[in-house]
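$ run holo --ligand "zinc ion" --emit tokens
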Amino acid sequence: MKTSYITQKVQQQIRDLADIARLLWERGWAESNAGNISIDISGMLKPFGSSNKQFPQRRMPKQYPELANAQFLITGAGTRMRDVAMQPTKTVIIIEINEDGSAYSMLQNNAETNRLLPTSELATHLTLYQEHRKQGTAIKAIVHTHPTEIIVLTHFPELLNEQTLNTTFWRIHPEALIANPAGIGLIPYILTGTEALAQATADSMQHHPAVVWEKHGCIAAAETISKAFDLIDVANKAAQIYLCCRNAGIVPIGLTDVQLEELKHTFGSPQQR
Ligand code: 13P
Ligand code: ZN
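-- output --
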């Protein structure tokens, strides 16, 4: 990443991204190159535009008109979160979308980042930013990771139902509802890195700020990167508590129906009351 045009604001965003990458690694959710992170930094850098010949444009399979001229920090495909934490300038790319949302260029110019491409989940990241912009919701950061206990729960056939999964989380760890009253989305297994995964995630995110990918991981979008991380962290804590109980030989009941109703009434979103 060439640093001369990178503003202080963008440098701070890179540090914030690296801090979250460290947390993902420390949680044990980031084996090898697992996970990817992006931050919308539009408005923090002067756009280079199409007149710029320094950074060639790469056409994308899909057009993202709402993202015209947008700029993002995004982790490189195949990069390890532990390396992102320690060397973000060698593992995080800045991309700029062109005027009609059909191509991106990588604003970088050094030996390490020149070898990188954006994450293989680029389609999902861009589709989520695009759909949120359409709906006027201001998400600024996306975190995808492989939280172990959430993944384990997607191997329990009886929990592979969005409502059952959320009710289980709320009964076992009331904070899961307080932190995310809309609940977590759950989509069936879809091949990694595909447009189909991007679309299914965007559909689910119309109702949920975080979505579980069956037998793969979890993704969250929020107005800050810390908030996106928290959404996954709280859900995974609920999954951990559930599994601890199962490992101890009990099937936990958690809150009673009356307690759950009280919780929903006090903290739940209107749909859940
Ligand atoms: P990338 O290294 O391409 O970001 O892929 C990691 C991953 O978790 C894919 O879902
Ligand atoms: Zn993944």
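-- notes --
Residues 115 and 153 are 37 Å apart (CA to CA).
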